[in-house]
Amino acid sequence: MKALRYLALSIAAALFLIPFYLVLRNGLATEQEITAPTWTFWPSQIRWENFTDLFTNPAVPMVRSMANSLVVAVLQTFGQLLLCGLAGYGLARIPYRYSNLVLYLVIATLMIPAAVTFVPTFVVVSTLGWVSDLRGLVIPGLFSGFTTFLFRQYFLNFPRELEEAARIDGLGHWGTYWRVVVPSSKGFFAALGVIAFVTSWNQFLWPLVIAQDQDSWTVQVALSTFLTSQSIDVVQLFLAAAVSITPLVIVFVALQRFLVRGVTETGIKD
């Protein structure tokens, strides 16, 4: 039984890694090898100079685009963890007259298609002069109704005994949240942080509209320039894709332990 389990996991892992292999293999090959009728497992000659061609391409500022994506993803991740965490804790633990109404309004935002709010958001950002500006890329994504709802559901199950002990020590809601709740919920924060980071990094449509200047391009916009109606730069497209997923892999590997804990824990370890 254990052998079958390991076999199934090995097959699943191999299938999961196939896209990564294809991206790396094609990124280090020539266009002739990629489009050849016969398949080779690995390029006959690895072209490391493809990296130089990618990062010195004057038409696509890859380094700048990666840096912009990193700044946007990090700021939006920390912004969501801060704002949505506070909002979720308030909805779960601080009773006030209109708490249910606020909760229903937050949930209602999840039912509104993104296409409905896209144009009004662009008008606001354009009016503020944030087009081709990192503020226009970052600020609209600092709050998420879905993340707020997840925080609220999580804090509902957080052990009240810990909060009551903090109140006895003289802490209010603010002190209890930062000194007791947050340190005991690192796994859940890390899990939502990974989700927020990946979501922000992979955004394409909003940066495509807002980042009209090359200096404000994100990596997803830069990737799209390799694939146009006039031409397709297959080699650089694959190599740029491989480079662009590197930060995601690093974040996932670094936080995978917290990611697993965040799915299962209820607020504190036994």
The largest β sheet comes out as: none
Globally, the shape reads globular
Structural class: mainly alpha
Low-confidence spans: pLDDT under 50, at least 5 residues? 266-270
State the oligomer: single chain
Percent of residues in helices comes to 55-70%
Please count the helical segments. 15
Q: For the residues shown, what is the average pLDDT?
A: 87
Spell out the helices and strands N to C.
Answer: HHHHHHHHHHHHHHH
Question: Total number of β-strand segments?
Answer: 0
Task: Report Rg.
Answer: 23 Å
| Strand composition percent | under 5%
Task: Give the terminus-to-terminus CA distance.
Answer: 31 Å
Organism: Lentzea rhizosphaerae
Domain ABC transmembrane type-1: 66-256
InterPro entries: MetI-like, MetI-like_sf
Main location: membrane
Structure description:
Belongs to the binding-protein-dependent transport system permease family. Keywords: Cell membrane, Membrane, Transmembrane, Transmembrane helix, Transport. This is Carbohydrate ABC transporter permease. Its main location: membrane. InterPro entries: MetI-like, MetI-like_sf. There is one protein chain. The protein has 270 residues and is mainly α. 69% of the residues lie in helices and 0% in strands. The protein contains 15 helices and no strands. Helix 3 (49-55) packs across helix 14 and helix 11 runs antiparallel to helix 15.
